[in-house]
Structure formats: C-alpha cells, structure tokens
C-alpha cells in the first residue's frame, strides 16, 4: 500500500453513484425513491442510493432475458467470453484503490484488508473462471454402436444473485464468475448496507466488453428488491448468501413462483478444536484469534466456538486474551488498523446483546465486551473472549457476526466431536493435532463442508465453499460452482445400420 495516500482526503472527495445499473446504464429507481447510505466508520452520509423495488427488478430481469435470448453473450465462443472476463478482472485491479475505498466506507473494514484481500480476491475469482471457460468438456455416453448420446452443459438463463454486506465484492464475484463464464445473464441485488462496489463492478464489466443487459445491479431492501427477485417468474436460478432465516424464505419464494433452483450459502458456528497433542499451542491460539477477529468477526465461517482440551485450556485462554487486548478497534482509513467498525447500529446492538447474554448465562468474560470509539460516531466493539461456555448458551449456539469468541472445554476426542457436531450449522471446522490418524479420523467425523487441519482459513478459488445442515446447499468456488448455473442436456442420435 502506498504510504503517500491520504485516505481521509480521498473519502472526503468521493461522490459515489447510487443509481441502479440496468441494461448497460445507470438509472434512477422507477419510483424515484432513494435511501441514504451512511458509513459505519463515523456516521458520515455517503450519498443517496436508488431504492429498487418490484418494478426495478422486473426491468432488470427483462433486460437480462433479452440479452440472453439475443445470444449477444451466451452464443459467443468460449474463447471470446474468456477474453472479456479477463479484461474485467484486469480492470478491477486497475480500479483497486477506488474499489477498496468504497468497500471500506460502505461496511467498515480496514482499508489495508480491502486493498490486500478483497480487491485481489475478486479479480482472482473472475480470472479463474475466465480461464475455466474453454477447459470444460462435454460428454459422450457409452451407448453402443447404433446411437450417439451427447451430454452438453448449457447456461440456465437468467441468474439472480443476492449477496451480503460482509464481503460485498468477493461474494459478488463468487456468483458472477461461474454464471457469466457459462453464458448466463445476471441480476445482482447487493445488501442495502453495502451497495456501492457492486454498482461500480457493473460499470467496469461494461467497459471491459460485457454486452449491455448481461450484468444488472438493483440496490434496495430485502423485503422489496430481494423478495421481488426471488419471486420473479423469469429468473431461472437464484444464488443467495446470508442468514439461515432468510435462506428459508428463498426456498419458500421458489415454491411460490416458478420452482427456480435456489442455492443457499448460509450461517455458521464453526468449531475450532485444540487437542492435547497439538504441536504448537501458541500458533493455535494466534490462528484462532486472527481468524475470529478478522473482518470484525463478521464472517460466516468465523471459528467462534473454540473447543480446547481441559489440560491446555487455561494456557490457551491466557494467550488468546493477550492477543485480543493488542487488537483494539481503530480508524479503518488508517493503514495500520487491523480491526474496523461493525457494519451498522443494528449489528452493534446484536453483538452487544450477545455479550450481555453471555454474562447472564454465567460465562466468564476474560477480555473485551465493550463498545469503544463512541466519540467517532461509528460502531466499534472490543475483541471479546468468554471462557466457561457450554453449547447450551446462546453465545455458543447462535451466530453472532461480531468479534466474540466462546471457549468450551472437553476431556476426550469423542466429547469434542459430539460438541462440535451438536449444532444446526455445518460450515467449517478445524482440528489441531500432531497425530495424523487422529486428524483423519476427526476430519471424517466432523459434519462440516470444510475441515481445516493445523490451520484455519487457508483457502483458494480452486476448492468448493459451502456447508452441511443449515449452513446451506450447493457450493461456491471451484468447478463445482458451474453445477448451479448450468443445465445438463442429453441429445440422443440414432445411427441406422448401413
């Protein structure tokens, strides 16, 4: 990061465009209504954002359908789509500083993380799916000499995408990459809490050569724009990332409309298990703290349930508490800050409410637990560590989406697995042990979409992301993501004998 950039000056000069993006151009909402967007950093007003509703969603879906049916994108050769998506990714990197600043102002994450993680990860995702376009082959079934059966993968049509506020660009790219690479058209509904980077991405895509109407963005509120998109009769597939509560509604909306396929990536309460034969307790503690407090704890896969063997628990708690004390929330526009602001007042109240619930349940708050930087006008909570937690407590059972760690103690491997699996969620888990057989045994026993061993959050676009149970269905990332946005067609040709 350049040391010469004055991010406060850039933020003061920024005038983000909050209008929707439909049919290749910026447009006001059909009703003319807007809502004000304020930054969680200090409460400053960022601007007015179009309040998309059913009429705007209908216009965006109509534009996407027309683009798809015309073949302006879907019928392009794979190599041509590849070149456009590559230019899209390159343009994202070229706009790195602008996009990072928008992301930080929108949802409060440190500018250093937006620059080092969010923008490069977005570009990497688009590049990877661009490269995959002409590497996926169709099939010929082994039918015998008198028939030729072709199995081809075709775009599903119009894909709706609803993404959350915690990683707005990355989550958008996870939906856009495979959908666009396969030849679909997309209507994206970003969270009303973080709409600006999605709108800017649509402009960048158009400039990179994506035809008008192929990628549309309608900002707005869930009960208005989100519900209208999920209920729309001309949307063929819907990708949703968000809460389990809202994910249930998406399935209901599909049943009430056209039975569109719905893929939900939902909440998590991931277990981080430290066994007595862990190689380095210090590294385990450092990883648990950094993984949980990263992005202010606003991550669905955050390891918020830390299970530690009783023989190591006191030492582990002391170490994570010390690390938490060193990671105080700071100004997100300061390049030295590693812990930023929660996304809004609602999320602040939620986090503080869970902290209070932890106290009331009898858990011991070792460190943190308070709102800080109140004078800034923003929403900041100290990294918080509770010890003496059990699975029956709300702080261990429910997703908090804040910097709150719960430490649970266990005595045997079987008990650790039972505690870890006693959750409606199954997104991720982690096992820390130097015993290879134990690592394999526990990884197989844990009901989670990803199991990390002696690390957490090491990741890549090449592997699928998603969960078991109420953490959702389907997978983002990797080649498996194409399954969500394509149809399999069989073409059977009879071959008559000579």
What descriptive keywords fit this protein?
single chain, five-stranded parallel β-sheet, 15 helices, 498 residues, 20% strand, 23 strands, alpha/beta, seven-stranded mixed β-sheet, 39% helix
Describe what you observe in this structure.
- The chain has 498 residues and is an alpha/beta fold.
- Helix content is 39%, strand content 20%.
- The strands form seven sheets. It has a seven-stranded mixed sheet with strand order 14-17-18-13-12-20-21, with helices on both faces.
- It starts with 6 loop residues before the first helix and ends with a strand.
The proportion of residues forming helix, as a percent range, comes to 25-40%
Record the strand order, biggest sheet: 14-17-18-13-12-20-21
| Global shape | globular
DSSP summary: helix tally: 15
Largest sheet: 7 strands, mixed
Average pLDDT, rounded to a whole number, is 97
Low-confidence stretches: none
Strand-pairing-aware structural class: alpha/beta
Strand content: 15-25%
Using DSSP, what is the number of strands? 23
Cα(first) to Cα(last) distance is: 71 Å
Spatial extent as radius of gyration: 23 Å
Write the layout of secondary structure elements.
Blueprint: H1 7-13, E1 20-22, E2 25-27, E3 34-38, E4 45-50, H2 54-70, H3 78-94, H4 96-107, H5 111-132, E5 139-141, E6 147-155, E7 158-162, H6 168-181, E8 185-189, H7 196-208, E9 215-217, H8 222-231, E10 237-241, H9 244-256, E11 261-265, E12 271-274, H10 281-293, E13 305-309, H11 313-326, H12 345-361, E14 364-367, E15 371-372, E16 380-381, E17 384-387, H13 394-397, E18 404-410, H14 413-421, E19 425-426, E20 428-432, H15 436-445, E21 450-453, E22 468-469, E23 486-494
Parallel strand pairs: 7-8, 7-10, 8-9, 10-11, 12-13, 12-20, 13-18, 17-18, 20-21
Antiparallel strand pairs: 1-2, 3-4, 5-6, 6-23, 14-17, 15-16, 19-22
């Amino acid at each position: 990061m350049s040391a010469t950039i004055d991010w406060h000056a850039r933020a003061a000069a920024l005038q983000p465009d909050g209008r929707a993006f439909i049919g290749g151009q910026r447009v006001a909402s059909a009703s003319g209504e807007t809502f004000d967007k304020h930054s969680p950093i200090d409460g400053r007003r960022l601007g007015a954002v179009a309040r998309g509703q059913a009429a705007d969603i209908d216009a965006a879906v109509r534009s996407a359908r027309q683009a798809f049916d015309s073949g302006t994108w879907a019928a392009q050769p794979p190599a041509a789509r590849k070149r456009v998506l590559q230019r899209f990714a390159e343009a994202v990197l070229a706009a790195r500083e602008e996009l990072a600043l928008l992301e930080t102002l929108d949802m409060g994450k440190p500018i250093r993380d937006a620059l080092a993680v969010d923008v490069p990860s977005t570009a990497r995702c688009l590049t990877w799916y661009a490269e995959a376009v002409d590497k996926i082959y169709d099939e010929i079934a082994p039918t015998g000499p008198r028939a030729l059966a072709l199995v081809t993968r075709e775009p599903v049509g119009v894909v709706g995408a609803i993404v959350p506020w915690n990683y707005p660009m990355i989550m958008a790219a996870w939906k856009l990459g495979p959908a666009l690479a396969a030849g679909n058209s997309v209507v994206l509904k970003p969270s009303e809490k973080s709409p600006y980077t999605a709108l800017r991405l649509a402009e960048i895509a158009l400039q990179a050569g994506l035809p008008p109407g192929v990628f549309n963005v309608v900002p707005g509120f869930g009960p208005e724009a989100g519900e209208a998109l999920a209920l729309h009769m001309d949307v063929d597939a819907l990708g949703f990332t968000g809460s389990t509560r809202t994910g249930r509604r998406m399935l209901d909306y599909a049943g009430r409309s056209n039975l569109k396929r719905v893929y939900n990536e939902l909440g998590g309460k991931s277990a981080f298990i430290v066994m007595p034969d862990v190689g380095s307790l210090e590294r385990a503690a450092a990883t648990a703290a950094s993984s949980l407090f990263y992005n202010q704890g606003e991550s669905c896969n955050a390891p918020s349930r830390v299970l530690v063997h009783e023989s190591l628990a006191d030492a582990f708690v002391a170490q994570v508490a010390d690390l938490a004390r060193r990671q105080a929330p700071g100004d997100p526009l300061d390049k030295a800050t590693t812990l930023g602001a929660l996304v809004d007042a609602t999320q602040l109240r939620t986090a503080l409410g869970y902290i209070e619930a932890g106290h009331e349940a009898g858990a011991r708050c070792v460190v943190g637990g308070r709102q800080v930087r109140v004078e800034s006008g923003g929403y900041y909570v100290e990294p918080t560590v509770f010890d003496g937690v059990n699975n029956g407590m709300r702080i261990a059972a429910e997703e908090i989406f804040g910097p709150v760690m719960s430490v649970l103690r266990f005595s045997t491997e079987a008990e650790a697995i039972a505690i870890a699996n006693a959750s409606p969620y199954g997104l991720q888990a982690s096992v820390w042990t130097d015993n290879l057989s134990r690592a394999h045994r526990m990884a197989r026993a844990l009901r989670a979409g990803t199991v990390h061993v002696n690390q957490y959050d090491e990741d890549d676009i090449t592997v699928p992301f998603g969960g078991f149970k109420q953490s959702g269905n389907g997978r983002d990332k990797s080649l498996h993501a194409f399954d969500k946005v394509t149809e399999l067609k069989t073409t059977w040709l009879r071959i008559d004998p000579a």
